[in-house]
Amino acid sequence: MAPIAPRSGDAVFANVERVNAELFTLTYGAIVRQLLTDLEEVEEVNKQLDQMGYNIGIRLIDEFLAKSNVSRCVDFKETAEVIAKVGFKMFLGVSASVTNWDADGTCCSLILEDNPLVDFVELPDTCQGLYYCNVLSGVIRGALEMVSMKTEVTWVRDMLRGDDAYELKVKLLKQVPEEYPYKDDE
Amino acid sequence: MIGVGKLKQYTNVLEKPLSKGKQEVSLSAFAFLFSELVQYNQTQVDNISELERRLEDAGYAVGARVLELLCHREKVADSLEKGTEHEDEYMISEKEPLVNRFISIPKDMGTFNCGAFVAGIVRGVLDNAGFPAVVTAHFVPVEGQQRPRTTILIKFAEEVLRREARLG
To answer: What ipTM was reported for this prediction?
Structure first.
């Protein structure tokens, strides 16, 4: 059987069911607000958002692979491009660009061209340490872990904190060899 | 590579032009996020009614903001139309609301309905528009269907009914 050609982010996004982005934005806002009330410490909220993102990422990867027809990427560079152009597009309807590669091709930056999470958002003085979009870094980390890549994802620039862009640094820590999940005698 | 993104920087969120509200995200992105909202709140409560109350609170916050957005975009209706005379209850029914699409309720959670979130949104909109009401979500079994439909029940506060009667 001939391999199925991978689909572009736009093509996938056009074919999936969609909802109003404001409902999504406001729901996310409601979550962040709940966390801030419950956990009080901004640091704890950052952690919880990252954890939620991770939970989403490890499930979202299935849908991503099923709908995008993307097959194995040859290297981390391709992986980053696929996340930026297909992944972001398919779920959030926006794309990102990949820049700032390091010499050995294991660390790069994703710069969001649009960010549906932050509409109507401004950080009050009491929340200056908050990484409002921390759910996104968790999603990427979780999803990549499911395809055998341990990564570290951190925010470099955040417009809510006064920077001029949304920039995520994705660093490949190690590639875990794939193992058959069961032993023979089980 | 500075300035790759299309995003423009504003010193104040209020300076930002209001979008037309036509943007979309994928339904599954919303479903994933909503499922995290439910799961997180599950860790914060001991019983179902508390869970529903917390979801409703989250929804309320969304509703209040949706109303504000609508007000900025277009003129709001002057009065709420009544379906039937002398009725204080209204119902919105949906076969499979967005929030219940990918949710299956474990047996031990009984009548828990994620529609509480939607009920919260409705209450948030109504309350902030000056129509305080009690809004609840219920499963209603449908004959010949495996999954029940969800009904959002709106019961207006007495003061609303009195006022509306006075205004004719």
So the answer is: 0.89
